[in-house]
Amino acid sequence: MASTLGKKSSAKSSAKSSGKKEPRASRSGRMIYYFGAKKCDGDGTMKPLLGGKGANLAQMTKIGLPVPPGFTITTQVCIDYYDNGKKFPKGLEEEIASYVRLLEKETGKKFGEGGNALLLSVRSGARDSMPGMMDTILNLGLNDETVKGLAAATGNARFAYDSYRRFVQMYGDVVMGVQKRHENEHDPFEEVMEKLKHEVGAHNDTDLTADALRELVKRYMQLIKQRTGKNFPQDPFDQLIGAVGAVFGSWMNERAIIYRRKYKIPDEWGTAVNVQSMVFGNMGDDCATGVAFTRDPATGEDVFYGEYLVNAQGEDVVAGVRTPKPVAEMANDPVFAGTYKQLEKVRERLEKKFGDVQDFEFTIEKKKLYMLQTRHGKRTALAYVKIAHDMVKQKLMTPEHAIQSADPDALSQLLAPVFDRADYAAAKKAGRVLTTGLAAGPGAATGQLVFTAAKAEELARAGKKVVLARVETSPEDLRGMIAAEGILTSRGGVSSHAALVARQMGKVCVAGAGAVQIDYAKGTLSCAGQTLREGDAISINGSTGEVLAGNVKTADSELLQVLIARTMKPDDSDVYQYYSFIMKLADKHRKLGLRTNADTPEQVRQAIAFGAEGIGLTRTEHMFFEGDRIDAMREMILATKEEARREALGKLLPYQRDDFEGIFRALEGRPATIRLLDPPLHEFVPHDAKAQEDLAKKLKLSPDAVKARVEALHEFNPMLGHRGCRLGISYPEISEMQVRAIFEAAAKVQKSGVKVRPEIMIPLVGFRKELDNQVELTHKVAAQVQKETGEKIKYLVGTMIEIPRGALTADDIAETAEFFSFGTNDLTQTTLGMSRDDSASFLPHYAELGIVKANPFASLDTTGVGQLMQIAVEKGRKTRKDIKLGICGEHGGDPHSVVFCHHVGLDYVSCSPFRLPVARLAAAQAALGKTY
Ligand code: PEP
Ligand code: MG
Questions:
Q1: Residue 837 predicted with pLDDT over 80
Q2: 761 — alpha (psi -120 to 50), left (phi > 0) or beta?
Q3: What are phi and psi of 65, to 5 degrees?
């Protein structure tokens, strides 16, 4: 597996390894932190070093919640492990041993001793939680001898052998690598178990007797020996060391890497390892295990939300193998009613102490409650806005945390489609609802049915919408889940892998639709007497759990109905109320201004509804494609003499003037940065023979003349060709027409009493003299129009900074420019020497290899392109202290880039209307100290 960390480390270690084979000691000094009644070394603030899980275990211990004692091996040790060529730092094993002794003292149990065995869990724990992406091992310390002791001590042989078989299974999988070898193969351990169940006539796992489980352990051992050639380790300390190494190793497994790429978690963070004394939820019917959220993570409702399984271990809940019961039912269960009361108190304390919704795991061992972990709960965007709104009002959450804890990108979920009401009602009436599963990720999805992650990716790449259906998902399905519109599973609860991951990604998800039968081999999904095949249309409603055959039209989200279509009143929409509460909070904190990239009055109105304070970029060329304007444009391009060009431009002028008038009116006095023509002229002429003939007829030219002109305009590298200000310099009459149209429109609108603030922007400037040329022209035409109309217009003239020379000579350029707007689309392609149009063929691979952290055209390359921006900002301000600075490349709507723009000192970001809520929140996060 290739990886940045792995590669960097091996390069480093080979350079240093020549004379020195001994592993180095951890650079952090202290490698292990203990949490328990005897001492508690860490606390909740130490997430970078102890990982999220380790820090919160320490914090829960500190506030007196019942946490089984244990210790955390720091993330720094993981970093050192990779720096050392995957070897433990010096002294780690001895330290682990001494902390195991401390645990023995506190628990009064012995590691590796049969009668009173100390058993351990070993879990990963990165700074940000990465659910299900890394490995966990439970019941460590069991071997052929200790299992007998455990059976005798508990008087429960079934429990002892069930624990042992789980341990062997997990250890065999995670540490010894006995796994399925391709996507549709069953898990080899599950297969062995299914066979045995069949032989002994057991229906459920719980029907297996102690003898059957003993036999199962034997068969697992054989499987491991057969697959790996090795025996299962019997020495508990060897087991522990193997498990710690495997958890470090899992930081670099493929699914963890994919997850980090998606959520921009740096490889360099590493994972901590938490070693904790085991408690058991599977010792009998007065034991249970569960996961719960202090509020509903799908809707944000203030209800205790979770699930538990009686006589089970934690992994059973998350794996979705058995369908658990809702936590609320515990209150009516005579065995657990008391524990439930205790859990309710824990719920309250957690929210108060951690200041956010908590997602926690618990185990009940013989009616005694233990807390195994807690973390801020991942939630849908809907739940995010509701919870932030409610908890801030209840004074349980600080407004700052409400902003900082958000994933700005997820806000786009609130704009996601819902089913079109009429079509949905018709589909239901026609009996197309096949079944109802659990509503695990809200929203409406419709598309072609697929059964594998690979197929989902393949079709999505071809532009198709797909719904991925699996019996249950595992982290291997991650790529397919990213590609799909929605996810459907036939097994598992609301905390199953599918539900957790979908919620976080904002994917529509229906989980645990038990009536659905999926047959991978046949490629069919059957339910309610109907059978759908791969490729058939299917729809799912992640807000209600319904699964429908066929397509159902989708419609605007409630937020769009309030803000854009205005078919709903703000007061009638709770979602809108929560959303606007958060946006107001964000506005209170953010320093960056917000503008939009818009070319029509309609877009401007949308953008204002989303919070835009002006236009950061109008691409005037988009206006030339509407209606029959393109004819006049082509006439202008085909003209060989200036006179003829001016005549054609005269036809375009009124169109442009009307466009600008509409935009100025929609802006109601807000500023508008309008860019003069940028693309090369060949983009406007037809390239196929038939269209050229038609054009020749229209313009009364010979087809050959048209063909010749089109050929003359052909460019080998149009992105670096005759475009931007180079056009206006070659054909000043084009710029003159555009500037005239802007000022005539401005004068007209101003005369009618509406304020106007035009800002003329010159594209693709690399030399100050290019800018001087176009600025002089602009001032000349502006003066003429002002004189003709008698209207004095306040305006600015500035430039885009989008090629490296422009950035490097920004001090000179600022002598003329009154503002800069960073065109980071072009600045990225020219800085990287990488075309923005065809780099998609290799960039995903680059991201996988860690050569780039993210697609640099989507998320700013802050090191390279960002450095040029920084130079331009400093130099620009040196010449002109009050120069206005903004960004209008696609990066203006990317949270990571927005944070960078704040720190580099821009005045505003500009992005497409629908990205504005995202940019708005990211800008507030930056102001509150978030770094990029
Ligand atoms: C840019 O280059 O970033 C920009 C905004 O201009 P365009 O995308 O139109 O080239
Ligand atoms: Mg550009």
A1: no
A2: beta
A3: -80, 150
- Of 48, 45, 71, 38, the closest CA to residue 59 belongs to 45
Q: Is residue 888 flagged as an active site residue?
A: yes
DSSP 477-498: GHHHHHH-SEEEESS--TTSHH
Our answer on whether the CB atom of 619 is closer than 6 Å to any ligand 1 atom is yes
- Model confidence at 2, pLDDT cuts 50, 70, 90, reads very low
Q: Is the CB of 678 under 6 A from ligand 1?
A: yes
Ligand 1 pocket, 6 CB below 6 A? no
Helix axes 629-638, 642-667, angle to 10 degrees: 140
Averaged pLDDT for residues 454-468: 95
Q: What percent of the chain has pLDDT over 70?
A: 95
User: What is the pTM (predicted TM-score) of this model?
Assistant: 0.81
Instruction: Give yes or no: 527 in active site.
Output: no
- State the distance from the centre of ligand 1 to the C-alpha of 889, rounded, in angstroms: 5
Using a 6 Å cutoff on CB, does residue 888 contact ligand 1? Answer: yes
Active-site residue (options: 40, 509, 888, 911)? 888
For residue 10, how many other CB atoms are within 10 A of its CB? 16
Please state the atom number of ligand 1 nearest to the C-alpha of residue 889: 3
Residues 660 and 652: their CA atoms lie apart, in Å, by 13
pLDDT of 494: 62
The first and second tokens of residue 320, run together, are 């979705």
The residue to which tokens 């070093």 are assigned:
49
| Ligand 2 midpoint to CA 801 (Å) | 9
Alpha helices (runs of H) in 32-145, residue ranges in sequence order: 47-62, 75-83, 92-107
Instruction: Give per-residue pLDDT as tens, 626-642.
Output: 767 888 999 999 998 99
Rounded Cα distance, 438 and 421, in Å:
21
Please write the tens of the pLDDT for every residue from 396-443: 999 999 999 999 988 878 887 789 878 999 999 999 999 999 888 878
Residue ranges of E strands in 387-545: 418-419, 433-436, 438-441, 444-450, 466-470, 486-489, 508-511, 517-519, 524-527, 530-533, 537-541
Residue 826 CB less than 6 A away from ligand 1: yes
DSSP H helices, 278-380, are: 314-319, 337-354
Helix, strand, or coil here: 835? coil
User: Can you tell me the distance from the alpha carbon of 382 to that of 16, in angstroms, rounded to the nearest whole number?
Assistant: 51
Among 495-499, 720-724, 866-870, the minimum mean pLDDT is found in: 495-499
Ligand 1 mutation pick, 617, 624, 830, 834, max ligand atoms within 8 A of CB: 617
Question: What is the distance between the alpha carbons of residues 161 and 168, in angstroms, rounded to a whole number?
Answer: 10
Write the secondary structure of 207-243 as one string of H (helix), E (strand) and C (coil): HCCHHHHHHHHHHHHHHHHHHHCCCCCCCHHHHHHHH
Residue identifier of the C-alpha nearest atom 1 of ligand 1: 823
Measured by CA distance, the residue closest to atom 6 of ligand 1 is 823
Closest atom of ligand 1 to 823 CA is 3
Write down the catalytic residue from 497, 682, 896, 902.
497
Cβ neighbourhood burial of 628 (10 Å; 0-12, 13-18, 19+): exposed
- Least confident among 149-163, 293-307, 834-848: 834-848
Determine the distance separating the centroid of ligand 1 and the alpha carbon of 800, expressed in angstroms.
9
Which atom of ligand 1 is nearest to 888's Cα? 5
Question: For 59-71, what is the mean pLDDT?
Answer: 96
Pairing relationship of beta strands 908-911 and 117-118 according to DSSP bridges: unpaired
Which atom of ligand 1 is closest in space to residue 826's alpha carbon? Answer: 2
Which H or E run includes 828?
helix 824-832
The 10 Å CB-count burial string (b at 16+, else e) for 137-174 is bbbbbbbeebbbbbbeeeebbbbbbbbbbbbbbbbbbb
